[in-house]
Amino acid sequence: MTRSRLFFNTSIIRQNLRQHGWIGILYTLVLLFVLPLQLFINGDRLEEPVAMDNLFGLGIDIGVILIIFPIGAGLFLFRYLQSKRSSDLMHSLPLRRAHLLASHAASGLLLLLPPVWITAAVTSLVRPLHGNMYIFQGAEIWEWCLTLSLLTLFLFVFTVFVGICTGQTILQGILIIILLLLPAGLLQFVNIHLGRYLYGYPDWSGLYDVQTKWAPILRVVDLPVAPLSLTEKWGYAIFSALFLAGSFLLYRVRHSEQAGQALAFTYFNPLFKAGVMLCTMLLASTYFGSLKRQPGWIIGSVIAGGLIGYIVVEMILRKTWHIMTRRLVLEFAVYGVLMALLIYIPVSGLTGYENRVPQNDKVAEVFAGGNYRELTENQVGDTTRKEMEDEVFSADRKYIEAVTALHHAVVTAKPDQKNGPWSEYPRSRNFTLVYRLESGRKLMRTYNVPIAGFEPELKAVMEHEEYKRDRYLLTRMNENIESFRLNNRNKTVVISDPQEVLEFTGLLKREILNKSFEDEISDQREKASIQIVYKPDSSRFQQNSYTYNWNPSYKEMTAWMEQKGYADKLRVTAKEVVSAEMFKDIHHSAIPSRQLYNAHTRLQLARDEKRSVVITDKALLEDVMLHQRKFTSQEGRYVVMIEYKSGNTDFVSLDEQEMTPALKALLP
Amino acid sequence: MIEIRGVSKIFLEDKAVDNISLTVHKGAIYGLLGSNGAGKTTLLKTLAGIYRPDAGSVKISGEAVLESPEVKRRLIFMPDSPYFFTQATIRSMAAFYRSIYPGWSQKRYEELVTVFRLDARRKLSRFSKGMQRQAAFLLALSCKPDVLIMDEPIDGLDPVMRRQIKNLLFQEVAERELTVLISSHNLREIEDLCDHVGIMHEGRMLVEKDLDDLKADTHKIQVAFRDARHAAALEAKLQILHQEQRGSVSLYIVKGDRERISQAFHVYDPYVFDLLPLTLEEIFIYEMGDAGYDAQPIIL
């Protein structure tokens, strides 16, 4: 009598342990292999002890194990719900459902948690032993133990919850995996979908973070690089409690005769149907949309995707493939239209998303440029740079006006983002426009803006100091600079004299601030690239690997470089050229589109058509070196392949007006 | 003892049990008859507290069964095919039942193991179907329940075992007023076992009878009247379930007191008069024919 008053029924637990005890034993063995044993096996390869921040990166990826065991245990223990005969027996016993559930859940945790704790205990026992090549503290073991306990608990409880909602073990297993991945997958599809059809939609930069956070299966794989944060630990604990509570609540109203049915609660059916349809529709449109751009293909693929999803769900729910009825067609039509609207409305323009440009006076701060992400996003494990986000915004009214004007011009003309003749780099600029509005909201758009046709608007933005500050990371040109490293092909100059560093920093800043729009978009080839080396202890900017240029148009800098004698050291002359071959870059239509950007293919074409000529004359070579521009894929320019003595080959372009008559005369 | 009032159970769109009420008194053996799909199993599982009824109430000794451990402790449900845990033996199942059912009698269990001559240490999965059924029966009786619900229990048992189980049941009923509910699709299988019978068809209860009453109450009469008008006069006086004419001989199935019927016929001094007892099977065929059902496929 006393036994039944307890919340757990020991008979059930004993029976479960007798029947499924192997899960616990196997889990213990696997965990012992993954952690304590690896300390010694894996450590053999190391020559000296290695310090570890966390114990997840010891060679064997714990992700799969962590997914298989808790979910497997949940499937086995709650099999009693899904098989008719065992369900009848269990529900005829003199036990309340709450007792049944509590006892089975307790059995599962008894199978799953002691292995984790035993492994942690063994690890702390063997840690000081000779042969352990890893250095870590007791805290790391605690961390490991807590993380594994929480994730094991969460995955097991989630399996139980899904088990209560379904009536088939196989479907339960499949659904668990799908649901654990669904947030990530759905967000990915939605992101791709919006990115493809919504004009100006910025790729969601924080997507990966969000995905891993909300998709435990992905999160588990990430453990070696990113241990669970405190918030996440609480999150898993809270969600475990919620799913457990949900299981108890739903189990009370669950009909035991649902054993064998797909879903135990028929009111989940519409949600299930709609969810699967939405996923298959988005999946199909994502897949076919990336291969075929015609609207017919895309609409067709969405319909086909929806149909397949609907048929699959119907088959699962009715447990037969003979599902064809007249009602089915009607129901499919209803679901199809609803889902299609759900997919279509956000990208339809009905929401006003595409044309929305904030009014100047509503904008508090603005950012414009192509490097928003690099400026504001953290690398995995790096927490130092996030604070920069505030620094990249500008409250300058003139600048805000210039940006909104550009934004207006773009959404009015709506240049094709991907297929325009100008779409590749030198003829367009990628812009992310981010507004912080007075209302506190943030508005963000991304456009690929062609230069042609938008010159005045682009000029107003790109010549502005605020733009340049972000574009060229001017705030990072500060007193922490130790030296500059200048490179031109295989030549290097280091400016490290503190006085010169100071002067050069000033010069570079000035030149950049004075740089005109025309310079900004020109394809002039730099005289040298400039890299900044920071002082060793200036931690915040040590990561700055941005490369600046010494452009021919930087008159002041050029004069300084000449005066200091650095210019000569960086100059590459005709003497260093082994050979040069020139051709007029035409007949692009003869090149397969996949190879269009391959300069060698173009040269080969020119050679085949006998349009190329080898330049041997040193004076002519000097001409080429002087006028060389960056190689671009634009048709109709002159291209020279230069081979240097150092062994490098380089393609450069020459403009029509810069071709000397002598050079022109060479060509056939 | 068992009171079922207005119980309905719906699976998806199908009404498996449709507004059924029945009462089983303590110490009775109630037979639930019906063809496959009549709703017997559903009714029994609802009674055992496995299914939640969509309407109506199921009570044992005045207490609702569903989610009530106190009631379920005195109740055992034996499904049509016995279920044991994987790898279980009679011994390990006994240990499980012993820890769950407070009424468990180890003495009874040991007695029964010798009666059935089953190997308690052998894996139940290696037992034949009939042996598994015996094992389930053994375990059920060892729990000393007050109510035993058995779904198609006779299926797959040899006549000797059937006899034995029947005797055990009678013994339990006699000694400690065990209440038994048995379902079957075959009347002949349980007619010598039950004292009450209910017939289910398409979820509804067609007839419910006390068998002893029935047998005493319904009679088959073969008669040849001297005058055809006698027949018409007689039919007005008696409760006639069925009538057939075979040449000059009439066949009547009549309900009522044997003596009274006999007297009624003798008034007309027929050429032939035979009053015969009916088999249960015949009674049901006539009763249900009267209610508009063809009994043959329902219970036989």
From TrEMBL, chain A:
The chain crosses the membrane at residues 21-41, 56-78, 99-121, 141-162, 174-194, 234-251, 271-290, 296-317, 329-347. InterPro entries: DUF6449. The keyword Transmembrane helix applies. Keywords: Membrane, Transmembrane, Transmembrane helix. Residues 435-501 form the DUF6449 domain. It comes from the Bacteria. This is DUF6449 domain-containing protein. It comes from Paenibacillus tritici.
Automatic annotation (TrEMBL), chain B:
Keywords: ATP-binding, Nucleotide-binding, Transport. SUPFAM superfamilies: P-loop containing nucleoside triphosphate hydrolases. PROSITE patterns: ABC_TRANSPORTER_2. Signal peptide: none annotated. GO terms for molecular function: ATP binding. Residues 2-227 form the ABC transporter domain. InterPro entries: AAA+_ATPase, ABC_transporter-like_ATP-bd, ABC_Transporter_VariousFunc, P-loop_NTPase. This is ABC transporter ATP-binding protein.
